[in-house]
Write a structure and sequence with these properties.
This protein is α+β, with helices and mostly antiparallel strands and 492 residues long. The chain has 2 domains: 225 residues, no CATH class; 249 residues, no CATH class. It binds zinc ion (2 copies).
């Protein structure tokens, strides 16, 4: 049955979808679809289904196999014809996406600001003596937009809608989420002619009666609408799955409207440079030039003041990321080796692949002498298959994503921190390293002293927690300050 689904979205942090060259001329569907696929795959894997590795392009539709399949279930039939659960919905070679999507900007604007947000780290540079490190931040789309889906009703209501609602609750939409873009709020959902508004209450509850009956055959739909999940097996592997993900929200108060100006990064931007004693020189001591170090192409502070006033957002993510990785005056770094150990690069990402590396911990691996075609990770003390390895030349993505800060309805501020760390139950060492890291991460995320009276809401599956329990817990919200509870304390 052909259905229509229209979703009105409000951006909480700017939406970035990429575009021609590096500027964003309009909101591009492709950027949104890529992100939708990423989340849908993670959900499928977490619920015990199979979603291929999109970088491997493994799936393609074989019409002959489809005809010959004896499976009664359509999904199973497509699986036998060569399509994983994600490709069945989002398309693969020979198989078209099951829906069409059209993006309509409503009240809003694209902000073309672009500039450097410094990290405080200064690197050696042969040509200019030094280079000030940091992030190139851009504006993006601020405001409201509408996504209009047409396609199989079953797909829209049982697969796409739960994915978008999950993104709204815990994640972000679009390709640049590691540096904080794309936190959204769904304001309104229209199914056929029926309208459901956020301001009328929880959308899941409003929609439940209509939708849950239709989605009993869908893993995603049944989990989301009926709170029923029963993965036969828990996902084992190095790709993101909601069961190996962690989700945090930090809410804090602001002393006054200038709270954000106290960060040293903002002061550097104000001056246009970093004083020698405040910079962290990463090169050899003998090559260190005299400060202060000039920041080229600075992100204008006046622009940030505008973002705060008009859109109630502040690019907090680079600040949090730097503190977590490298430490700071008020927090110890959560990874060793000055933030440059293999583990840190693995967790926070690096541009150059330094592989082949272990997909669970980032340690360089060598061929396993005892088992053919296997690899050996010395730090996990484990033998790994080639699909558990990240090979050289492949970019190591950041597994930790931090959003910008956005103002909440109760006039406080909030940011999200989420990501994934693959679980490897066959290796105690890997499991221990993962557990310790997540523990430290949770302890550290609210730290910078400028964040007043913060509360942390945190969800990560505990080592012995049943996947069903965790999957159900994820359907709950952190509501208000008092219930910004620690999910872990109830998990064990
Ligand atoms: Zn696939
Ligand atoms: Zn390893």
């Amino acid at each position: 049955m052909v259905g229509k689904l229209e979703i009105k979205i409000k951006t909480l942090t700017p939406l970035w979808t990429g575009g021609v060259d590096t500027t964003m001329d309009r909101i591009h569907e492709t950027g949104l679809l890529g992100s939708l696929r990423w989340w849908y795959e993670a959900i499928v894997r977490g619920l015990g289904g199979y979603a291929c590795d999109p970088t491997e392009h493994k799936c393609s539709f074989d019409a002959d196999k489809y005809r010959k399949s004896k499976a009664l279930d359509e999904r199973q039939r497509l699986r036998e014809a060569g399509l994983c659960a994600a490709c069945q919905v989002l398309g693969a070679t020979g198989w078209r996406r099951r829906f069409r999507v059209e993006v309509r900007p409503l009240a809003g604007e694209i902000d073309f600001t672009e500039g450097m947000f410094p990290s405080g780290r200064v690197h050696y540079d042969r040509r200019r003596n030094y280079r000030v490190g940091g992030w190139l931040l851009r504006g993006g789309y601020f405001g409201n937009l509408e996504l209009r889906f047409t396609g199989e009703e079953r797909v829209l209501l049982c697969e796409i809608l739960p994915t978008l609602l999950f993104i709204e609750q815990w994640g972000a939409l679009g390709p640049k989420t590691s540096i904080g873009y794309g936190v959204i709020e769904i304001a309104e959902i229209k199914i056929g002619e029926q309208v459901y508004e956020r301001k009328q209450g929880d959308l899941r509850i409003q929609l439940n009666e209509l939708v849950s009956r239709k989605c009993q055959e869908s893993r995603t739909g049944k989990w989301w609408w009926s709170r029923k999940s029963s993965p036969e097996s828990i996902y084992q592997g190095v790709l993101p799955a909601i069961t190996n993900m962690f989700f945090g929200k930090v809410r804090f108060g602001a002393t006054d409207s200038d709270w954000w100006r106290n960060f040293s990064e903002i002061q550097w931007l104000q001056f246009g440079n970093i004083a020698e004693d405040e910079a962290h020189w990463t090169g050899e001591e003998s090559q260190k030039p005299q400060g202060p170090y000039e920041i080229s192409r600075i992100l204008p502070v006046a622009r940030m003041a505008h973002w705060i006033r008009r859109h109630h957002v502040f690019p907090l993510s680079p600040i949090i990321r730097t503190r977590l990785r490298y430490g700071g005056s008020d927090v110890a770094s959560i990874c060793k080796g000055n933030g440059e150990s293999d583990w840190c690069k693995f967790v926070f990402g690096t541009v150059e692949g330094y592989g082949p590396i272990c997909g669970y911990c980032g340690t360089r691996v060598r061929e396993d002498r005892r088992v053919r075609n296997q690899w050996w990770c010395s730090s996990g003390r484990a033998s790994l298959a080639s699909d558990e390895i990240v090979f050289e030349g492949k970019r190591v993505q950041s597994k930790v994503r931090v959003s910008w800060a956005y103002r909440t309805n109760d006039n406080r501020w909030e940011f999200r921190l989420w990501g994934w760390l693959p679980e490897h139950t066959q290796s105690d060492n890997h499991q221990q390293q993962r557990g310790e890291f997540l523990h430290k991460l949770k302890q550290s995320i609210g730290f910078p002293s400028q964040l007043q009276a913060f509360t942390v809401c945190w969800f990560a599956k505990q080592k012995n927690e049943k996947p069903d329990d965790f999957l159900t817990a994820l359907l709950g919200e952190c509501r208000g300050q008092e219930s910004y509870r620690d999910a872990e304390s109830t998990g064990n």
